[in-house]
Write a structure and sequence with these properties.
Blueprint lengths: L25 H14 L6 E5 L5 H8 L4 E6 L2 H14 L4 E5 L2 H7 L4 E6 L11 H7 L3 E11 L11 E7 L2 E7 L14
Parallel strand pairs: 1-2, 1-4, 2-3, 4-5
Antiparallel strand pairs: 5-7, 6-7
């Protein structure tokens, strides 16, 4: 698993065997970041990475110059690996939180420009993530929520839904915090 672009481009993440993760494929990750870079730059952005796993997405955001990335995962082996890798790569803008994502979302008091969530595909509660994030006002104005999921979940009727893209078995649903006029911003075509 490698960091695709930016300051840490080419660096490899070598997670220990047996981590309970399903890392986002390089193809899907590259496609996702192509969409996001067409939307706007990353400088000054604050990112929340939920179900961070190996931290692959967190490191990709950090490498591309975001102001900060909060990486949340419940598994201590995952959070230890992200912390150790951040220290090894001398990444100073990743903040690791060991917590249950749903409890974290209820207690966090700040807003983010981008929230990325990659819950286990079989997790029943995954479908509630957009509602929880919007109900708790966790996105800044024009902020994006990207939810990685399998084909079984459909979000077209959810508040703030903008688009869905699929890359093999990986699906990304995009949501945006609604502007004052109530219409979401259009997703760029990649």
């Amino acid at each position: 698993m490698r960091i695709i672009s930016g300051l840490y481009r080419g660096r490899k993440l070598n997670p220990p065997r047996g981590l309970p993760v399903r890392p986002t494929t390089d193809l899907a990750k590259e496609s996702l970041f192509n969409i996001l870079v067409n939307r706007s730059g990353f400088e000054g952005q604050s990112v929340l990475d939920l179900f961070a796993g190996t931290g692959s997405i967190s490191f990709e955001f950090a490498s591309r110059g975001v102001e900060s990335v909060v990486s949340v995962d419940l598994n201590h082996r995952c959070t230890d690996f992200i912390s150790k890798s951040a220290q090894e790569f001398r990444v100073g803008n990743i903040y690791v939180v060991k917590a249950n994502v749903f409890q974290y979302l209820k207690s966090v008091k700040r807003k983010f420009d981008i929230i990325f969530a990659d819950p286990p595909y079989q997790m029943e509660e995954a479908a509630s993530l957009p509602r929880i994030i919007f109900a708790n006002s966790l996105l800044n104005d024009e902020g994006w929520l990207i939810l990685e999921h399998d084909a079984s979940l459909k979000f077209q009727d959810y508040k703030g839904f903008v688009d869905v893209r699929n890359y093999g078995k990986v699906h990304f649903s995009f949501f945006q915090f609604l502007s004052e006029d109530g219409s979401p911003e259009e997703m760029p075509v990649s």
